[in-house]
Amino acid sequence: MAKRVESPSIGIDLGTTFGCVGVYKNGHVEIVPNVQGNRKTPACVALTHVERLIGEAADSQLAMNPLNTVFGVKRLLGRRLGDQSLESDQKWWPFKVVAETDGKPQICLSYKGKTVMFAPEDICAMVLSTLKDVAQAEAQPWTLCVIAGLNVIRTVPDTLLAGLTYCLEKRGARAAAGEEKVMVFDLGGGTLGVSLMTVGEGGMEVKAAGGDTHLGGEDFTNRLLQHLAEEFSRKHGRNVRWNARAMQRLRMASERAKRILSTITKAMVEIDSLYDDLDFRTTITRDRFEELNADLFQRCVSCVETTLKDAGVEKREVKEVVLVGGSSRVPKIQQMLSDLFGGKELCKSVNPDEAVAYGAAVQAATLEGSFRERAPVLRWTDVTPHALGIEVGGGMMDVVIPRNAPMPAKKELFFSAHIDNQPGMQINVFEGECRRAWDNRLLGSLDFGGLPPSPAGYARIFVNIEIDANYKIQVLAEERRTGMKKCVDIEPRGCLTKLEIARMVEEAERFKAEDRERKRTVDARNALEDLTKK
Ligand SMILES: Nc1ncnc2c1ncn2[C@@H]1O[C@H](COP(=O)(O)OP(=O)(O)OP(=O)(O)O)[C@@H](O)[C@H]1O
Ligand SMILES: [Mg+2]
């Protein structure tokens, strides 16, 4: 009898700082090392005079080629230049970011004396393509690939995948435990994801999801970098920030020191000839590092509190707090979390770097029907990632659809003209949690002008705001006495749809084909040169 051959299934976690690949085959998940033998691949791309480098090859030459090495760009996805959070990132990036006409950011690099522009999606696609190569070396032919880490609407949330990993690891103990509430806290390089889920016989379900798409280990490193740069300036009277190469060397030292401070309470920083042949030697204590980041750490804890509130769950009801993501290793954050839950011991049993990729591989295998054990059924409702509101009198934001509302969602509002002969009104739609409208992100505007002259209170404008399952927003305004109507569609920002991911993967294949073509040209040229030398 013919035996069904199971083809491997792939899970990829594309993070802000690292990518990780899991493959499910022969009944278990393996995290696949890249060609350098590492289980995580830096999400870094560089252009040199002759070639394009991705992953470790790009990361390792950052200090030599700072202006042409790109990292952390996942933070640019879905953002516009001018967004407050982007401006603070830009300060620390050695590469140049410029705006397209519609404000979309473009990364500006130079290649063979020419300026070349890349959309952040292009850079992510290049990293993704490399991660696919890592997977393919281990799993050929593969069938299904689940991509996580991209803050995607309408696909399994990363925190749920990490929760799945936790659940499978704890399977034995869990079977008889009944339904429990579990919190997953995923603090990576660029983002914090917090989910409150129920785990039980019936499967796993996300009750509330929260976090911050702009809070992570990169920010902690930047704070340390700023501190060290200031110290160097104080000691030597030179502003090291003017030198991109020196700044990147200092960044690498900051990253190293930050990690050391997760294990011991003091770290040495020693860099020879950092700037103008001046050596830099100093020490940094864990206490100082914690002071430098106090507000950021507090924000992490506040996100947890908000998620609990959104879920309507008391702290004491939470059975387990599962730590995921490289930055969840920071001792102060662990202590603050533990304190929040009344001195609770946190769950560190899943591998914080690999839990999402592992869960993604299991999910791929489950979708394929090849997962051999009984995987818990995953349930979640796509919810709005932020509150959605419009600007009202005094520049305040009036929340129309709250954060964490199940999608699709809609709401109708009513306005009347409040002065005589008011010619119209502008409806500004924002996304965010701040009380002042302009502290949030402006998503779009509807200019409802051209109202015929009438006394105050006569014009009655109904505004209908609708969010579909893909987080596309439609704003429809109607003045019912005159029948005037106007509508505007707003594309989702800050998170991607499944369709966009599919496009990115396609793009990645195109880039790969281009690389192959370039390699063929280089090989041909080398062969020709060899021939002429003979
Ligand atoms: N021992 C450590 N102490 C402190 N921070 C650490 C440690 N190890 C790793 N990190 C930090 O963890 C971050 C990377 O974590 P991770 O790989 O989970 O992020 P990511 O998945 O790439 O990003 P994201 O999930 O935010 O998109 C980096 O900022 C790194 O500095
Ligand atoms: Mg991550």
Automatic annotation (TrEMBL):
Domain of life: Eukaryota
This protein's UniProt keywords: ATP-binding, Nucleotide-binding
One matching Pfam family: HSP70
GO molecular function: ATP binding; ATP-dependent protein folding chaperone
Region (Disordered): 512-534
Stated family: Belongs to the heat shock protein 70 family.
Name used for this protein in its record: Uncharacterized protein
